[in-house]
Structures are given as C-alpha cells and as structure tokens.
C-alpha cells in the first residue's frame, strides 16, 4: 500500500489501538492477560482502517463519528476472536509471528478468551443503539459459525467445488468486511444504494483477500506469513489452489485420500500445486473479485478517501510480490 493510504486516519488508528486494550478489561486476570497478549501482537488493522475510510467517504463533512470509531473497534475484536478459535481448531502454533494464545496459555483459556471477545463485541455493538447496525454485524458471528461448520465437514473432501469453497470463504472472511463496510455507511445515514455498494465492495475485497492468503499458504514463508506454511493442507482444508490443481494432477488424490500421513506428502503436494495452473487460476479469480470491489466504488464521488479504498483493493494482489 502507498505510505499515504492510511495517513488521513492515522490518528484514528492510534486511538483504536489504545481503546482496544481498554475494551478487553476482563476481571479475570488470565482472560485479561490472554486478550492483552492478542492485541499487543499488533496486526495490520486493515479491517478497522477500511471501516474508518468508509466512514469518511460517506460523511458529507468527512468527519468520523464516535459510533464509527466504536464499530471499527468492534470489527477488530470480532476478527481477533475468530482467529483465536481458528488457531485452536487448526492447532496452529504461530500467529503474527508470535506463539498462539492456546500455545502460550492452554486450549481452555484460548476458547474462553475467544468467547469473551465475542461477548465483549456484542455488548459494545448493542450500545451503539442502532438496530440496523446491530442486525447487520450480529449476522457476522453466525456466519463465522457457519463457515467453521462447513470447513469442519469438508475436511479432506476431494469433491468440494470452487463455488463451495468461495461460499465458505465468504462466511469465514468476507462477511465481516462486507457487513462492517455496510454498517459504517448506515451510521453515516447513507442511502440504501450506497450502503449496498459498500457491502459489495467489502464482500469482494474479503474474498480476494482469502484467495491470496491461500496462495501464500502454498508459496509464502513462515516469516512472511507469521504462521507455518501448508497449515491448511495439514488440517484437511482444501483451498482454491489445490482444488484447481486437482483437475490437472491425479496424484494429489492419493495424498489427500491418505490425509497427508506420509512424511513428505505435504511437500510433494505443495510442489505439485506449484507445477500446476492452480496458483495462476486462483490469482486470476482473486483479480476478478478485486475488479468487482473497484466496480462497486464507481458511483461514489471522487475523493482522496475513495482513492485510499481503491489502493487497499490493489494492495491485496501486491501481497504476492
């Protein structure tokens, strides 16, 4: 991303970081320690940044409301809670370059910390006193559960289609970005057409983000990702590059069928995916969703904020470089 992408909301993001630590003030010291550890781990804060940029874009005077700030904070809390639960389910030992919560503490603390964060987000959401926003964001937590169930039921399933996979990706990743964009527009009292445009922008951005994540799980390094590569494969989560590669490389069925139990199965699978058109086809699909996200912004008035939102779309693809 251009160094100026977040400059207009730089102070807002600093406030967000301070508020996140205040918002997770659990009475139980172990829960507090786990939650504080999570937010100290940092992260790019892309989701709250998008919320704040949509807020600026939809306010006539460009001034972000307190409710927008709170929605950005809620969005990051929900995202973080979902990561904690994901790491437990996938038995992932690293996240953002640090040991995961269940690895540092234990699985019970991690599950409770995730539950606590979801509960905190619901409390702060209710206190926005905006029923439409509450309904929109509450649906996200249901979508997370739906995505996890779908993923759990389709482990090592060689019959999963690209469409099935994209649906699951919507529930697990894109739903939060789409709904928080829409929620920001709602708080600004934007009209329904504008609300739907930003929902569409967030939806396609989120799907593209997930597709690029899947490529990086195959081609990236642990240092770059902040978590082990090939982790999805190990857990039986068949992602887009592998689904595309299956149509070309029959030997992959053998590795999946035996659930990558042999010593070099993961490495061989990764190499077979790299040798196929799977990564290129996934990148092409991500580009389609990036274009759809940009198209959703077409009717918005020209502004620096709109350009910042476009830059975020373009940034998704540059993560591969």
Automatic annotation (TrEMBL):
It holds the Pfam family polyprenyl_synt. CDD domains: Trans_IPPS_HT. InterPro entries: Isoprenoid_synthase_dom_sf, Polyprenyl_synt, Polyprenyl_synt_CS. SUPFAM superfamilies: Terpenoid synthases. The keyword Magnesium applies. Gene3D superfamilies: Farnesyl Diphosphate Synthase (1.10.600.10). Its cofactor is Mg(2+). Keywords: Isoprene biosynthesis, Magnesium, Metal-binding, Plastid, Transferase. GO terms for biological process: isoprenoid biosynthetic process; quinone biosynthetic process. The keyword Plastid applies. One of its GO terms (molecular function) is metal ion binding. This is Prenyl transferase. The gene is preA.
């Amino acid at each position: 991303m251009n160094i100026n992408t977040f400059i207009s909301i730089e102070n807002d993001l600093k406030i967000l970081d301070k508020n996140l630590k205040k918002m997770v003030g659990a009475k139980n010291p172990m829960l507090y320690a786990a939650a504080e550890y999570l937010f100290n781990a940092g992260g790019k804060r892309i989701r709250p940044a998008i919320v704040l940029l949509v807020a600026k874009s939809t306010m006539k005077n460009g001034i972000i409301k307190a409710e927008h700030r709170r929605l950005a904070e809620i969005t990051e809390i929900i995202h973080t809670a979902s990561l904690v639960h994901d790491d437990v389910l996938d038995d992932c030992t690293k996240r953002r370059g640090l040991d995961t919560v269940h690895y540092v503490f234990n699985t019970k603390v991690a599950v409770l910390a995730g539950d606590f964060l979801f509960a905190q987000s619901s409390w702060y959401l209710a206190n926005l006193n905006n029923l439409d926003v509450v309904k929109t964001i509450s649906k996200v937590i249901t979508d997370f559960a739906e995505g996890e169930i779908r993923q759990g039921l389709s482990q090592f399933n060689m019959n999963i289609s690209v469409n099935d996979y994209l649906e699951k990706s919507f529930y697990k990743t894109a739903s939060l970005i789409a709904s928080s964009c829409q929620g920001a527009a709602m708080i600004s009292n934007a009209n329904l057409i504008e609300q739907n445009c930003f929902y569409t922008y967030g939806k396609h951005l989120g799907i593209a983000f997930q597709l690029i994540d899947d490529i990086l799980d195959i081609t990236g390094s642990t240092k770059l990702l902040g978590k082990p590569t090939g982790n999805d494969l190990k857990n039986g989560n068949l992602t887009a590059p592998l689904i595309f590669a299956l149509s070309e490389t029959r030997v992959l069925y053998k590795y999946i069928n035996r659930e990558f139990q042999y010593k070099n199965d993961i490495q061989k699978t990764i190499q077979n995916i790299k040798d196929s058109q799977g990564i290129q086809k996934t990148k092409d699909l991500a580009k389609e969703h990036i274009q759809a996200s940009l198209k959703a912004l077409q009717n918005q008035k020209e502004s620096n904020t709109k350009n910042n939102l476009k830059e975020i779309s373009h940034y998704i693809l540059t993560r591969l470089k």
